[in-house]
Amino acid sequence: MPHILVVEDEQHLAYGIKFNLEAEGYTVTAVGDGQAALALVESATPPVDLVVLDIMLPGMSGYDVCAAIRVQRADLPVVMLTARTLVEDRVRGFDAGTDVYLQKPFELDELLSVVRNLLGRRPRAEKPPAAEPGRGPRIRFGDAEVNFDTWEASCRGRPVKLTNLEMKLLRYLVEHEGLVVSREELLKNVWGMTRAPATRTVDTFMLNLRKYFEADPSKPAHFLSVRGTGYRFVREAPRDRR
To answer: Which DSSP category does 158 fall into?
Structure first.
């Protein structure tokens, strides 16, 4: 069964999360600080498959723990828990590399749904789809190259480290090239959710893709906004686009 690491210094909350995850059949380890969490991510047997991470931790913040996890294992799903409600806190969490940001108090069913969907989208468990014209496992656009078989990406000759959900989002956009996809569609088919855990989740992830791959993120040529609707991916930017 998948091994989940819960990083939470409030013992009653850590116990409650651990109890409910174990009731779903998961193997769960709970620790109360960031250093212990990073040690387990590096050496736990069986390996950690997903991290549930609180922000307010003693000694080392959840932001710093998440950033360190991304250095150790870029594809490890991270669910960040916090009572903070400001937009800048959510943005900081996504910048640190979290996949999903849940605000306390959260619904247990929502947490369990997030865990199920993140574990169900681990890239190493996927079977690559049959190649189609223009939709193969390796694609190029602008100065970027992405291989969906190996989950590797580069831009302007430099490697780009994408999280599990960033790669999922990119793949979904590529597979629907030229079509307008709504935020609701992305939340349903990429995140596996019927409602956003944070109102700007999709927008923040799109900003990240632009930062990674666009020559000028403020004037995107490939990841286009469609006002009032959602987003559209185009591989070849119009020549007259300013």
So the answer is: E
